[in-house]
Amino acid sequence: MELKDPMFELLSSLEQLVLTRDDRAADLLVQRQPAQPEPQRLREMTGMQVDEFAKVMGVSVSSVKSWEARRTRPSATAQKLMKLLHANPYLGRQLLE
Questions:
Q1: Separation between Cα atoms, residue 70 and residue 64, nearest integer Å
Q2: Is 71 helix (H, G, I), strand (E, B) or coil?
Q3: What's the gap between Cα 10 and its chain centre?
Q4: Does residue 1 have a pLDDT over 60?
Q5: Please, are residues 63 and 69 in contact by the beta-carbon 8 Å criterion?
Q6: Burial level of 55, CB count in 10 A (0-12/13-18/19+)?
Q7: What integer is the mean pLDDT of 31-39?
Q8: CA angle (21 as vertex; 93, 75 as ends), nearest 5
Q9: pLDDT single digits (tens) 51-63
Q10: Nearest residue to 14 (alpha-carbon basis) of 96, 73, 82
């Protein structure tokens, strides 16, 4: 039996809630959003500094810099959280409070 990451499962559920409130709105969101938001663009869009973005994502500053330099890719859990941040840019600030 495969163990699933509880954080990944939680973020997947939140993503479904955020992106499928209205099927038509969800279709529009899916069409407008890239498959995976670029970390640097997302961070700048949310108005966060690298250290703030790292805190929201639950990773180190060096991980965020590595993502932005495209040396490494975010984990599946981090990618889910980035999709949620992309759908609701104010979520990042709320998570910092």
A1: 10
A2: coil
A3: 13
A4: no
A5: no
A6: middle
A7: 66
A8: 55
A9: 999 999 999 999 9
A10: 82
The Cα 53–Cα 46 span in angstroms is: 9
Residues 34, 36: Cα–Cα separation, whole Å: 5
The vertex-11 CA angle with 36 and 1, nearest 5°, equals 105
- Encoding tokens for residue 47? 């108005």
**Model pLDDT, residue 14:** 73
Q: What is the CA 35 to chain-centroid distance, rounded?
A: 11
Q: What CA–CA distance (Å, rounded) separates 57 from 46? A: 13
Specify the DSSP class assigned to residue 2: P
pLDDT the model gives residue 7: 78
Which tokens is 50 given?
Answer: 């690298």
**Roughly how many angstroms between the first and final C-alpha of the chain, as a whole number?**
38
pTM here is 0.68
